[in-house]
Design brief:
Length: 213
């Protein structure tokens, strides 16, 4: 009787072990399937564009965590010594080609009636010379006209008085009317676009200024 009971218990234990082994294998398969699904979702969420690659064993936890933005590496600011000035880029139009010939033109002073200070009733004194360089054309070459004028000031600090620039120049574009006429003639007579007009005989210096005019 004891032998039969012990053999029955052995069969029950073997069956239970077999059932547990099958359950363990099934759980391993289910776990692998879930891992593959997690990897697929991870690739969809964190593609290569965001440079977030899935590594390590605990991949399932990364799926439910908020990504932490990576801060760019801060570059240390260059040290400045006391009294050192920052290099500033000069404002305004670029200077014309210094190799071009220059022609200096003196602008006539204003009338004496305009030089009487309204506060002191005395003639204003010349303060400083103001000049402007404009690109001009005289066939077959380009040159630079340098206009100079005196600016008259008064000790009473009223508005300065000076003669206006000649009407033949475009002060903002720094070009002369002769350049505009040359471009118009090249465009309508030679049937060239404006960007190709300077290259009829040789490259025109300061072509961007002329197109801006």
């Amino acid at each position: 009787m004891t032998t039969a009971a012990s053999s029955l218990d052995a069969d029950v234990i073997l069956k239970e072990n077999e059932r547990l082994r099958r359950e363990k294998e099934q759980w391993a398969i289910d776990k692998r399937i879930l891992e593959l699904k997690v990897e697929k979702l991870q690739r969809q969420l964190w593609a290569k564009k965001s440079e977030r690659l899935v590594t390590g064993e605990d991949k399932q936890k990364l799926l439910f965590q908020d990504p932490t933005p990576q801060k760019p590496a801060e570059t240390p600011a260059p040290q400045r010594w006391r009294g050192e000035r920052k290099s500033q880029v000069p404002k305004g139009p670029k200077p014309l080609d210094p190799s071009l010939p220059r022609e200096i033109i003196k602008v006539a002073d204003p009338d004496l009636k305009e030089l009487i200070c309204p506060e002191t009733k005395r003639p204003m004194q010349p303060g400083f010379i103001e000049q402007i360089e404009v690109l001009a054309r005289r066939a077959p070459e380009f040159y630079v006209k340098v206009y100079q004028r005196w600016v008259f000031v008064s000790p009473a600090k009223v508005a300065p008085v000076y003669s206006p620039w000649p009407s033949g120049i475009l002060s903002r574009s720094r070009v002369h009317a002769s350049v505009v006429a040359y471009l118009a003639a090249a465009h309508y007579c030679e049937h060239l676009p404006l960007y190709a007009a300077p290259g009829i005989k040789r490259p025109m210096p300061g072509g961007g200024l002329c197109r801006a005019a």
